[in-house]
Design goal:
Largest interface: A-B, 73 and 72 residues
Number of domains of chain A: 2
Helix content of chain A: 25-40%
Number of strands of chain A: 14
Strand content of chain A: 15-25%
Distance between the termini of chain A: 47 Å
Oligomer: homodimer
Radius of gyration of chain A: 23 Å
Shape of chain A: globular
């Protein structure tokens, strides 16, 4: 077993090379990373060709990334690492609304949309009225919470995926004194994540679907509370059990109710149908960092 | 423990998403990769900031890579993954010369150098005469084996690291009927791996040396035998115990003997000193792939 011994010697040397790291945390993280990376290679008896395929895959994932695309995040997403990291770091209070993946389509400085305003701004899709409350885990409403919303249009595309600088179907609103918000958007539809890069090759080799179930993105922030980054998924979506990025949590499936015609909650009279989503969010109280 | 349960659900879903992979091997490799990746994140309780730092690090490693630089290989090297993969895949016969990392400085179509010829071709450094034999593990010499050699000059640089297309200190020779080779090169010196990219940041954060102990690269190939990719290190080098890429094997440390003046093995009379390395290589017999 001389050569198995050689492998052990190499792995131990790689782990201990981080003994003198500049911080305890750096040492802890890197030594665990090396141990698991080597454990993976040992477990599958990684071949040279597989090692090279991995090197080339990661290199290309970096090279196709840029200001409008982050393939390495997408890779992390489809391996479940992004969602696992979200779950590890979310508040542990079961009363607090669950978190899910941030995704690559958030944009800073979205427009503010007034009460009952429409953040679609021309994005094609069925109208959807969204309302609800933001409160703390102790139950009291949070006034002035920033409710940031973004979503895909009926073609499954976000504004940033078009060849234009148009801003559509994204915006923010502040909750009123009762902690409530109300706005129009368009009804989300399921869509595929981008499959024209290395991540797409991986999904095809694994015979996995690139589809994500329909959802609206929410980021809710308020002083004294933990930021909440989440989606509200559409109940009934056929992809709820096979989200390409493992983002679905049962508590985040919302009832998007169809109304064929009539008077909408904002008082507008609708000849065509609209959807309505009511969802109440609960934020965790901010915990002071120790140390 | 509802939230630990959520983490388990995510990890199990990510693993089982590869159940339908196009091949058994793809499923095996990817499921092990996901398990170890998630095991790492769980073990260190990876923070969102650390996850993002890792994403950005890998993205930049891909982006600085190109025809003349492969940062992802360098990263694999300093994590010991390259060397571990070498050890996993080398022949398990202890009579066969040990393998080590390929490194990023091999170039195809090197010049042929005749018996007692000089492959330095103007590369600066102390002259070094290298001779030895190539044989099979049963002991018989291998005639016509291709002995490919490359090395750094006295400044620790390979020809491809200069801004020119000059080819220097690399070449190949075929063994004679007795399985022997003999050529001149320059004495190798220790040198740092490139530290101006993400890999350099990692080494600094870990307070690790970028130095590699002095070595000559050999790639020896012959029909019917396994390719041998290895180095011969210089005995006495102060970096033998801290190779940045974990490539040192005790059996690959060679005695580079200094001769102050006189007649060299090729009959040339030398006014200045030269080094001499004798090393005999043993190749493993090629094994037919099963299946």
């Amino acid at each position: 077993m001389e050569y198995d011994d050689a492998q052990r010697v190499i792995s131990e040397a790689a782990v201990s090379s981080f003994d003198g790291s500049e911080s305890d945390r750096y040492r802890t993280v890197m030594q665990a990373l090396v141990k698991h990376l080597h454990g993976f290679a040992e477990e599958v008896q990684l071949t040279q060709a597989e090692w090279m395929a991995g090197i080339e895959f990661l290199t290309r994932a970096g090279q196709v990334s840029g200001p409008r695309r982050q393939e390495m995040v997408l890779l992390s997403d489809i391996l479940g690492l992004s969602m696992l990291t979200v779950a590890i770091n979310e508040p542990k209070d079961p009363k607090v609304t669950a978190s899910t993946v941030f995704g690559p389509f958030f944009v800073e400085n979205s427009p503010m949309v007034g009460r009952d305003g429409d953040l679609a701004q021309g994005a094609p899709g069925e109208p959807c009225f969204v309302s609800g409350t933001v409160s703390g885990s102790e139950g009291s409403p949070i006034a002035g919470a920033r409710v940031e919303v973004w979503g895909a249009d009926e073609d499954g595309l976000y504004d940033v995926q078009y060849d234009s600088t148009r801003i559509a179907n994204r915006g923010h609103q502040y909750t009123d004194v009762a902690g409530t918000f109300r706005f129009w958007t368009v009804m989300p539809v399921p869509y595929p994540i981008p499959t024209d890069g290395p991540t797409g090759e991986l999904l095809r080799a694994a015979r996995r679907t690139p589809m994500r179930p329909a959802h609206l993105h929410f980021m809710i922030t308020a002083p004294g509370y933990e930021d909440l980054i989440t989606h509200i998924f559409v109940d009934g979506d056929p992809h709820l059990g096979s989200d390409a990025v493992f983002g679905v949590r049962p508590s985040l499936i919302g009832d998007y109710e169809f109304n064929p015609s009539g008077t909408a909650p904002d008082g507008s009279v609708r000849e065509k149908g609209w959807f309505e989503l009511k969802f109440d969010f609960v934020l965790g109280e901010e915990v002071d960092e120790v140390g």
